[in-house]
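seq:
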Amino acid sequence: MSTNKSKRKSLLTYWTTRYLITLCVGLVVFGVSTSLWLNYSEKERRLDVLRFMAAEISDRIVDDNGHIQIGSFLAPIFDRQRKFLQFNGQLFLLILDEKNNALFNSLPSKMPKELLVDLTTQLDEENGDQLTLKHGEKIYVVKRKLEHNNLTIGWVILMSPEKEINKVRDSQFLFIMLGALVLLGWMIIYLLTRQLAKPIKGVAHAAKEIVAGNYDIHLERNSKEKEIFELIHSFKDMADRLGQLERMRTELLAGVTHELKTPVTSISGLIQAVRDGIVTGEEAKEFLDICAKETSKLHKMVEDLLDFNSFAVGDIKIQKEEQDINTLIQEITHQWLIVQEENSIRLHKQFPDYSIVAATDPLRVQQILYNLLNNAKQACKENGVIEISLYETDDEIKIDVKDNGVGIPEEEQSMIFEKFFRGEEKKLKVRGLGLGLPFSRLLAQALGGDLVLKESVKNSTIFTLILPK
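struct:
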């Protein structure tokens, strides 16, 4: 694992290196292609210039009578044109008569004699011939036939080495320009990648903080890039969410410890008093009744934990069957009223005049409504009223459970379906683990519907159970 980590590079190094390699390869290919094209273009241009020079010299040295006149004017004119065209002494002129005798020869004395032999044997071939000398050097030859009255009276021959013809005088500038482009491209991608890597490095650092247990992270949120902006905001929201869950987990641990410890301590003290004979007779029986109630509450809390965990991992099955929803709710509310120890709660029901039939799991519907009814009862004060309304839309069946209790504070409404969350008001009144509403919503979603908080104001709260048709 450490080996793989050591091989990893930063985003800045990784992308700038690859961009630089790609840029260099592309520019090298471009440079080579451009250089070859420039060489070819320059060669053709120089050969065209030589052809033009040969034609001009031909016009100057042939008089009206068809005689070749080599005067003192020829050498200065040729030298001036050679310098103007930047041949740097690497351009040679040879003028032959009709018998191939040299009338003018600027070839250096070191030029091999076989060159003249080759030239005289190839005078009738096309211009631009490339001759290779015995020692390997190549020269280009441009020939111009001197004619008078359709008779050949001589030849004008211009020669230059291959390296002079193919010389590209702008090639140095070309490669300087390519080098500058490489440097400029690298600087641009470096700056852009560094700008891109900065927020990502911030997110990576924040992730390490979260791993270390610090959820209070700070990220720059004014990124102009849409994807980076969404990444930072989503990560920050995730961190806040994790921090909230961590606080809830801590509260849960403290709450579960307290909620389980309280009945255990109570049961232990009451049983100890009966066993030691501190209380006897009717008082001892009352103590044992209290122990039984506390044991029942303890069993209920443990059962809630086990049920929620089982459902969360998908161990609880849903068994749907055709049900008359009107009749089902009548039976559920009737059974709930029977087990209530207090009769101060009034239950009102509003059903449509016709039957609503749907495929659902009656046991799970009962669990959901029992929990909603118990919560409504706990929220109500004296002379509490609970209303249950059944109605339908085009696609859904809805069951409203409304109470006239104290309502849910606005700042707590967004968290009531969170696991282990318990409102401040409820913590003081009722012992529990805060799993009732989250578990009920899971059941409703498993049935294909949902459980939502429809409304909660100061004197009224409405939960809606939604079932699919």
